[in-house]
What does this fold into?
Amino acid sequence: MFRSTHVHHFTPGTDGLGASAVLLHGSGGSEADLLPLASDLLPDAAKLAIRGTVGTDGGYAFFRRFPDRRVDEADVATRAPNLAAFIAAAGAHYGLDGRPVAIGYSNGAIMAAALLLTDPGLLGAAVLFRPLSPFTDDLPERLDGTPVLIVDGADDDRRLPGDGLRLAERLARAGARVTHHVLPTGHAHTAEDSRIARQWLGAIAG
It folds into this structure.
């Protein structure tokens, strides 16, 4: 019996192939935030949009931060397995085949990176907008060529210079196949982010 541990919204796919996307919103957001973006990037795929379990900024997040905004790595490490178990259980409940593509923004992108690094068999690919590394040190788990797209903003005032690159390098050392872009923009998602992601997703699907 499926026990939903996370508030979520599920949209069935229309391509009949069982392709699916897991959507992880940014800090202060909700499960609805990335549905328009996912419909643009993967219009035919089933979509599992998940709400974070941490209340913050009038909305939700997937993990806690310290008052100085540093990532609480212990909190990430505690919450990531629970989220991974929910994604796997929801996939079975909704009849999804294969491993989903994660689409994460900001806080959700950081948690998606944590899922890649702690449960390498869970995700088939990941699109990470404005992430940073969830962990200070490399982990022993190995990714077997999982494709990952990271898109940073050069003028992002919520990130330190090189945050995205450090994550890209950590994922590459773990065995991921990483594509990294830096755009001349800030923290907000842009049309160029979407264009790059559509092109990348088309390439890995081909």
About this structure: Helices lie at 35-41, 73-93, 107-118, 163-173, 191-205.
